[in-house]
Model the fold of this input.
Amino acid sequence: MANRKSTQRGVRKITKSGGSLGISLPIEVVKKLGWREKQRVTVRRIHGGVSVKDWKK
Done:
């Protein structure tokens, strides 16, 4: 994969997978949060966007 310009590093496309839509997260962000593959997260709609947080039981 080619390197992105520094002004475009946070830009992502919405992709379709089966019946769902998704986006990829920058690996630097995922590593800083300590998240891993198949981890559960909560997604909430907030004013002007969405919030993605670690799922707590």
